[in-house]
Amino acid sequence: MKRKRALDRFTAIRLIAGIAALLTFCLVKFYIDGEFRTWMEVLERLTKGAGITPEYILFFIPFGFVLLYLIRELLLLAGKWWRWFSWLPALGSITFAGVLAFITYSADILLYAKIPLYYLAMFTVEFISIKYLEQREDLNERYEEIKAREKKDKEHRKKANHFPGKDSPEFPLSLEGADRFSYFRNSARRNLLYCFCHIFYDRSDLRR
After folding, report:
1. Close Cβ partners of 127 (under 8 Å, ≥ 6 residues apart)
2. What DSSP character marks residue 121?
3. Which residues, at least 6 apart from 63, have a Cβ–Cβ distance to it below 8 Å?
4. Would you say 60 and 43 are in contact if contact means Cβ atoms under 8 Å apart?
5. What is the per-residue pLDDT across 113-122, written as a single tens digit (0 to 9) for each?
6. Fewest beta carbons less than 10 Å away: which of 6, 24, 75, 193?
7. Quick check: helix, strand or coil at residue 107?
8. What is the pTM for the complete model shown?
């Protein structure tokens, strides 16, 4: 049950991150060819055969990540999961950190840094949140294992040290077990004594 709740939290965080990535891409404007343009305007220029300049990198990189996030959203809604998608936030953080560093040294930060900053912050928050939940679930599992082991050891010690009282229905059974043990022990002693005496007297007769 706890594991299912943890998976639901992971799914919720990933779905929210995917929606945020898509909304950011749809709402921000990209500075291309001297103007701020929406994503639809950029695609329209590309379909009309406009030349691709280095500025389009800031459009294609977010566009590629949004497509990956949409695929991930569909898989999550279908109840499926591809393991390598768990590295998508880390990959996005590294990519946009690199883009931001490139812009800082080669372009106008005020014009081009807004979109990489949005996605860098979003991917970083998602990555940290998922990692925090994973570590928390691991700690909870270890704590539950330790508690179960301690409970088992406590029950074992309690059972080993248990002796029923005089009025307990288990008391005659314990006495019966003790009597049986005493009976077998005394019988073994008598048999050994009989064998010893028999051998000793047989040897004494032979000497005579």
Report:
1. 89, 90, 93
2. H
3. 25, 39
4. no
5. 888 888 988 8
6. 193
7. coil
8. 0.61
